[in-house]
Specification:
Radius of gyration: 19 Å
Oligomer: single chain
Helix content: 40-55%
Number of domains: 2
Strand order of the largest sheet: 1-4
Largest sheet: 2 strands, antiparallel
Structural class: mainly alpha
Number of strands: 4
Distance between the termini: 27 Å
Amino acid sequence: MADDVPSRVRAACAWVAGRARSVRIAEGEIEAYAAALLPLTELPPPDPATHLAEGDRESRTAFVVCLDAINFGSGWWPTIRKRPGRSGYFTIAAGLTERFREDGPWSPAELTRLEPADLAGLLGQDPQHPLMAQYATSLRDVGEHVLADHGGRFEGLVDDDAGSAVALADLLAEWEAFADTSTYERRPVPFFKRAQIAAADLNRSGVASLVGEEHLTAFADNLVPHVLRLDGVLRLDPELERAIDADQLLEHGSPGEVELRACAVHAIELLSAATGGRLSPAQIDAALWNRGAAPRYKSVPRPRSRNTAY
């Protein structure tokens, strides 16, 4: 078996899905659901208010890497100061976009000196909010790696990985900023949601042309399992369903939380296969994530867990 990040994620999630007790995939729904996904059109372009679309390649690469390094905190979204009409993710993305647009990117050396108060100011948050310290830790790690391993150039991340999305995911998975491995029945279960999505985002932003994006898995978070649950592809046992519907926080690494992420990843593998490979797991993931912004999905509590993975 291949030892790259997507292969490890794919194998581990299939293993969890085969043993899961609180979440199951309604495999009888896969063919019809996949057929309904096939007419998907191109995803909408990024909103310039929340994603940097201009500037030189170094600046735009730095933006994508920094945003994905702090692309977590969904369990905390109900507690942050959201911008009018913006979700938690887009509130954070908008603050980072404004920083890059008005003051330019941080240099890697500047990243290594970031403190929670620095991020709170530009993101409009309380400096004491736990996410600010977690974000600062993650961005300091990014700065240290770019300085030590890539000559202080964010573009080096793209140029040093042989143009491969899988190779870039492998590289980022070694950084503490992108760490994302759980344990299930004493076995490590790698997810590496943000290490993989960074490769896809660099392609989508136009700063890279990484080959092999179709080999990436879905990006295991809490929103895509929520969409798959409401659409009838994932079935939950009554206890887990009640906890989610009551807005109870799930413990990160608990069996039910791991099963939700793993079964969503494996279900999307099955969906991709059912399309004959015409839609990759990354494409399906992006479509379902965008679907999750619709009122039907926002009106129902989604699973939440406070962690640095998603």
